[in-house]
Amino acid sequence: MTDATSNLTGPQTGEAGFGDYVALLKPRVMTLVVFTAFVGLMVAPGSHHPMVVFASILFIALGGGASGALNMWWDADIDAIMRRTRGRPVPSGAVRGDEALSLGVALSGISVIMLGLAANWVAAGLLAFTIFFYAVIYTMWLKRWTPQNIVIGGAAGAFPPMIGWAAATGGISVESVLMFALIFMWTPPHFWALALFMKSDYADAGVPMLTVTHGRPATRRHILIYTALLAPLAIGTAFSSIGGPVYLAVAVVMNVRFLIGAWAISRRDDAAAEADSYKVEKTFFRFSLYYLFAHFGALMIDAGLARFGWGLW
């Protein structure tokens, strides 16, 4: 495990700009957090005051950004080694480690307290636990300890729709757990596909990703297994109270395509993958992004149709 004090200072390439601090918050990850949280809030039963919706999403986004800043603070040593991450603000020297830590802690406190005041304390408690889970359980412990890091750690990315649901309802339900489970089961095949063509990065940084500890053949089998487990869960959600015909159609099409991609990956060997520069794996990884946005977008469409009395379920 890293020595956190080694990340408190670092080489400065110049005065940090606004964009450097935005990058600390992992804006691309925040996009997914905001979108799934918004869907969780909008598909929840009851009326939603626009100001409560706006404030809730704003503070959930800040909480997600706080997690990103804390992650970059702690992981600066391995980020500096990996090609995919060496340009991040802390390892590149644009932002000091102690600045990232201060920003992460400050945003954590602000986001949790303000969400509690704007919505309710159940949602705030879930947000606090999510930040803790990502920054401490995943980043500081699981990521460098076990090849199951992304499986268990994936829970952090799965909480936002539950937080959104709680912001609207003040509680947790089967429906919010289904949204959590959808993201939780999607995360391993999504990240393992990335790891297949980024193996050397994880090996060089000493991160025990499945590709490093068990090899690519085992990783390919795991992708297929998790995709096969994900499909019935994703399609079955259509028959819950948040599902509908639009979601069912999207889920069937996307999961058939996802299964075909996972099967194709499982049938490949390293020689074939290297010969075409991991084209199949990269295609699967890109499709996995569309997969999640399509499912949550369909949930929101069905919820909108139901609110206007056009639901068919």
Describe the structure concisely for a colleague.
The protein has 16 helices and no strands.
- SS element count, helices: 16
The fraction of residues assigned to DSSP E strands is: under 5%
Order of helix and strand elements from N to C terminus: HHHHHHHHHHHHHHHH
Helical proportion?
Answer: over 70%
Q: Explain this structure to me?
A:
With 313 residues, the protein is an all-alpha fold. The chain folds into 2 domains: 1-171, UbiA prenyltransferase (Tetracycline Repressor, domain 2), CATH 1.10.357.140; 173-313. It has helices spanning 18-24, 27-42, 50-74, 76-79, 97-118, 121-141, 149-153, 155-158, 160-169, 174-196, 199-205, 210-213, 216-236, 245-266, 270-275, 279-307. Helix 13 packs antiparallel against helix 14 (245-266). The model is unreliable at 1-13 (pLDDT under 50).
Could you outline the blueprint of secondary structure elements for this entry?
Elements: H1 18-24, H2 27-42, H3 50-74, H4 76-79, H5 97-118, H6 121-141, H7 149-153, H8 155-158, H9 160-169, H10 174-196, H11 199-205, H12 210-213, H13 216-236, H14 245-266, H15 270-275, H16 279-307
